[in-house]
Design a protein that fits this description.
By secondary structure, the protein is of the alpha/beta class. 49% of the residues lie in helices and 10% in strands.
Length: 281
């Protein structure tokens, strides 16, 4: 994958590329201000929106190595530190689906009620030396502590489908400096996919596809559109007709899912004795 083949908003794409250029040529700046030469990115959005492809594009753009870190296989803070020391300069350290990796990435403010219910013995255990376990503190030091200064010219890239599940301490600048939202495919992204998969840059059906997508691309992800175009890549007209059909079906399906979610929220509020939401079916 490269930035030429990624289906996304061209303005956002250029912004990311400019940020990467500034980072790669920023050694003098980081030395002058006394900061480690590193930068953190958070890629978030629904599945199939191109988060993994974005990582590959970043690596190809900068010619960096990639280290894929699976947190569930990390046994302790010490183990995490050892892994970081073994990585090379000019590299991208990736933690995908960080919200699913470990419970420690969740928002601590939402755990207060659970903590109050812990037994005294369990509380005593939690005060023990944490070197033999992986903790949120260890992960924070990994991204923005003394550990992170052991090398230079490194990018830390995190991905998640649910940004709201992450602890605010992980999201702040210095750990995840740039938040990049990758969402459903808009028309500008479709143009890239049409060129990649069908070899066309203009077609009489493009106006119909633009209308079916909507201005913000709320119908299908780039991965879903790519699959449709791949199935009929030898028949341009047939591929575009199939895409229009699936765009309309997907748009209707997502509208129905949104309506059902609103209904569930209303039922929950009624059960809790709160004033229900007002919605128009």
């Amino acid at each position: 994958a490269s930035f030429d083949t990624i289906a996304m908003d061209p303005v956002l794409k250029e912004k990311i590329m400019d940020d990467l250029r500034d980072f790669a040529t920023g050694e003098e700046f980081y030395n002058r201000v006394g900061r480690a030469w590193k930068r953190g990115y958070l890629l978030y959005g629904p599945p199939g929106t191109g988060k993994s492809s974005m990582i590959a594009a970043m690596a190809n753009f900068l010619q960096y190595d990639v280290y894929d870190l699976e947190l569930t296989q990390v046994k302790s803070n010490v183990h995490l530190k050892d892994l970081l020391i073994k990585t090379s300069n000019r590299s991208i350290i990736v933690i995908e689906d960080i919200d699913c990796s470990l419970d420690l990435t969740a928002d601590r403010t939402k755990k207060k009620k659970k903590k109050k219910k812990k037994s005294k013995d369990h509380e005593n255990d939690s005060n023990a030396d944490t070197d033999n376990e992986l903790t949120l503190s260890g992960l924070l030091n990994f991204t923005d502590g003394l550990w992170s200064c052991c090398g230079s010219e490194r990018l830390f890239v995190f991905t998640t489908n649910h940004i709201e599940k992450l602890d605010p301490a992980l999201l702040r600048s210095g750990r995840m400096d740039m938040h990049i939202h990758l969402s459903y495919c808009a028309f500008q992204g479709f143009l890239v996919l049409a060129k990649n998969y069908l070899g066309v840059e203009e077609h009489e059906m493009f106006d119909e596809i633009r209308a079916a997508m909507g201005e913000e691309g709320v119908a299908m992800t780039p991965a879903e559109i790519s699959e449709v175009l791949t199935r009929e890549k030898r028949d341009v007209d047939g591929a575009l007709r199939s895409l229009v059909k699936e765009l309309k079906e997907s748009k209707a399906k997502r509208a129905l899912e949104k309506l059902e979610l609103l209904k569930e929220m209303e039922e929950d509020k009624e059960e809790e004795g709160e004033e229900p939401l007002c919605y128009i079916p």
